Amino acid sequence: MPLTQVSFAVEATPAAVRGARHRISAAVRSWAGQYDDELRFRLELVASELLTNGLVHAGGPLTVEVTLEHDLVVIGVLDGGTALPRPRAAGTDDERGRGLALTEALCLFQGAEHTATGKRCWAVLATASAPGPAAEDTPGSAQDGAAPDVARWSLTTAGQRLLAHLSPATPGHGEPCP
Fold this sequence. Notes:
alpha+beta; five-stranded antiparallel β-sheet
């Protein structure tokens, strides 16, 4: 599948966030074809969290970037704020503080980075279920009585290209960003 990409500006208002969320969903649907309700839910919730983060914490105009490469959707939101999102514990009655946890739970991976004019928060979602080993075939699975292993990632050539697209400012291969 060829690289498919769109970028657009959004006002930092609740109504504009709602419209941008639907525009993101419509773009992905037009590129990937029909997709199930679960992907639509994850896509719109993650987009809403990224956009709302920019609205609440940075104000000012936002720029949305959406890319579909292979079976992965990358959503990026750029804003003028310089403070990167930080996880925090949310109390039972708190109205804020769950966005990063929600985004992390719904995405393959997500992050934030400084840009020349502020920051970029991004998330990657799969448009299709990724095949993987069955739990009973995984060493350390609950079946043999041991605690399950943490997820393991292998990086393909396509994955390296995607990561280079996500973080072109990464200082070097394998080096953490400052």
